[in-house]
Amino acid sequence: MDFKHPDGHVAAVMLPQRSLLVMSGESRYLWTHGITPRKFDIVQASDEQKVGTVTADIGDLTLNTRGKRTSFTFRKVKKGPCKCSYPSVCDSQCKVTAPSFPDSEREASMLEKKYVHDVYEEIALHFSNTRHSPWPRVVQFIRALPHGAVVADVGCGNGKYLGVSQDVYMEKQGQEYLASGHSCQWAILVGAR
Fold first, then answer.
1. Measured at the alpha carbon of residue 51, what is the angle toward residues 46 and 54, in degrees to the nearest 5?
2. CA-CA distance, 55 to 4, in Å (whole number)?
3. Quick one: which H or E segment has residue 107?
4. What is the pLDDT of residues 133-158, one digit of tens each?
5. Alpha carbons 163 and 153: distance in angstroms, whole number
6. Which one of 96, 131, 164 terminates a domain?
7. β-bridge pairing 150-153 and 169-172
8. b/e string for 49-79 if b means 16 or more Cβ within 10 A?
9. Same structural domain, 1 and 82
10. Residue 175 has pLDDT above 50, yes or no
11. In whole numbers, what is the pLDDT of the chain averaged over residues?
């Protein structure tokens, strides 16, 4: 399971099969958490290491093929106002004012940067890590194209279809808003992998 703190710190915890994880306090309320879909996990190779820990000895790491993972989440519905110790991330304690319409082109551009571009920059790596497997029907479509066909991969994506067929020339355009003259650093970097 991958945990992320609001300050950007990330921690990965290996959960053995049939394990139960009960979160409370900071791990439950302050950190975000989830199981990133991937085919392999990097785990300790030796049995002496405590399960779920990772040491600085990279020679003791190995790839473990991941099987089917299922997560069940049980939560209680709060009756009454929340008084948790994490008001900065608490939905019921955050004082959010309703957005107003922009008064000028400049203000509209600033809003677009804050709520579109900056959000894409923030979620880019996670977004890319969860889009690792090409969709079978798209692969089938690309492989059915004749030798020398040209494909434009336009839209939000990380280039996962670029290597599907060597007989097809694919042009990657990163983010949808690249077409309107904006740039997105992560799309360029991720697409270059």
1. 70
2. 19
3. helix 105-112
4. 788 888 898 888 888 888 776 665 67
5. 12
6. 96
7. parallel
8. eeeeebeeeeeeeeeeeeeeeeeeeeeeeee
9. yes
10. no
11. 75
Query: Does residue 4 sit in helix, strand or coil?
Result: strand
List 3's β-bridge partners, or say none.
11, 33
Query: 13 and 68 share a domain?
Result: yes
Query: Residues 155, 117: one domain?
Result: yes
Phi-psi sector, 174: left (phi>0), alpha (psi -120 to 50), beta: left
Cβ–Cβ < 8 Å for 89, 6:
yes
Residue 51, pLDDT above cutoff 60? no
Domain stops at, among 61, 96, 131: 96
Tell which phi-psi region holds residue 128, choosing left (phi > 0), alpha (psi between -120 and 50) or beta. Answer: alpha
